[in-house]
Amino acid sequence: MSERDILFQAFQEVQKDREKRNFNAFMDGLEGGLVNDLNKRWASGDNEGYQRLVSNIKEKGIRVFRNSEGKHKLKFI
Fold first, then answer.
1. Which of 41, 70, 69, 74 is nearest to 57 (CA)?
2. Confidence (pTM)
């Protein structure tokens, strides 16, 4: 393996790490926004809007959980 091959391999690893960090940041923002919307909808008492939002989220293959305090958690499956 040449020196350039080693450098190229290191470059690819750094690039993959950056892409993974960017993806994780995107997913964290998405999840946080959805959870915030669910919490607000539940607290507002808008049952129809809340059910519509939950339905839309579940259609995407995301499981929605709510604890006894009305706080939500998502599980991407």
1. 74
2. 0.82
